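Q: Give me the 3D complex with histidyl-adenosine monophosphate.
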Amino acid sequence: MKITPIRGTHDFFGQQVLKYRAIQDLISHYSRIYNFEEIITPIFESTDLFKKPLGENSDVVLKEMYTFKDKNEDLITLRPEYTTPMIRAAISNNLLEKLPKKLYGIGPMFRRERPQKGRYRQFNQINFEILGTHDVSSDIELIILANSFLQNLLPDKKINLFINSLGDKDTLSKFSSALSKYFREKKEKLSEESQNKIISNPIRILDSKDPMDVEINLNAPKISDFYSNEANEKFSNIQKILKDMSIDFSINKNLVRGLDYYCHTVFEFKTLDLGSQDTLIGGGRYDGLTKLLGGPDIPGVGWAGGIERLIMLMDDIKSLQKKIHLIIINESFREYGLKVANQLRKENINIHFDYKYNLKKSLSYANQLGVRYAIIIGEEEVQKNICTLKDLNSNVQEKKTIENIIKDLS
Ligand code: HAM
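A: Here is the predicted complex, encoded as structure tokens.
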């Protein structure tokens, strides 16, 4: 019986695991210097947590959620994103007494999308959220955090930051009606998928990559015509400070994001190196969300990044630690070999104990693995309580005491 992986899932091994861990390490560094606390929540939640907050007409809720009935008929969903579960957890555990609350989390998310390069059905996200402040400094700090994290992780990659403002709820409802009206008049020219969104979710048509829709979107009403004075001022402030801080960005008036909970600032960091799944980090402000989830009426802002997409852009990680291939030329010296291995590992030296007990085969295997050093143990080494250290690059070898080997390798 051969069991294949489920479509849209993948295993991490070798370099991918090293890269995943490097991302985790960098994230914990940023969480410390920006003072975020980690939170870990269950991977499944009540379906209600996602339905309304993400938008009953959003693609995620309509098509992509892994939802099933538990034995007692409760509807359960594998989390498709982390913002709502993190807020739910903050409410459930009374974490919102002292504000702002700054939380971060890393873990798997699940969306039943059509799998392709950079798009999976189980994928991993990094999330940073600030709950409880309207101050634009929080939007800016989060953008700077994302920018600095990406520059640090991917120093040679060109990554572009796009920002937009969705204004407040009033802006959004007026804009949505104006868009519906505009798209109704152009209905025949829109793609079939967009035609279905004219009434239910016209804002999402602006996100379409279909060439027919892109053309029509060019002349669609602009959200900036519907901003309140406050929204206008907030957005101008953010642009000014980002410019002053030399953060490069472009305004994309059609940037609307795929989830319903956003208002005011929205942003995305995109790469040209990944094809169509090009967004590395996306986020924005969600001022009414905590109240909608049954918590206090406090604002929030945050972002999420896709770990798989970041891994695809990272260079291979070279192990800095010297790896030693331990070769025992005959089984009768096994015990001495195990003792040597033990002594070296106590000094944190990485030992690969070779079970072949055959010098030629072991050396050829070590060369295949690209290992730099081998320790060879034969009769003379056992009798004199020493080892032979061989540099596989230069083929120079020397007999040494274990203490001297430790000195050389530390
Ligand atoms: P999102 O734009 O849906 O936002 O996802 C954020 C990031 O997750 C994307 O930019 C992408 O890198 C990654 N991602 C999404 N779907 C997939 C997939 N199927 N396969 C691989 N990677 C994927 C959110 O999830 C919001 N909760 C972000 C947020 C946090 N907004 C405020 N706070």
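A quick observation: The two ends are 48 Å apart (CA to CA).
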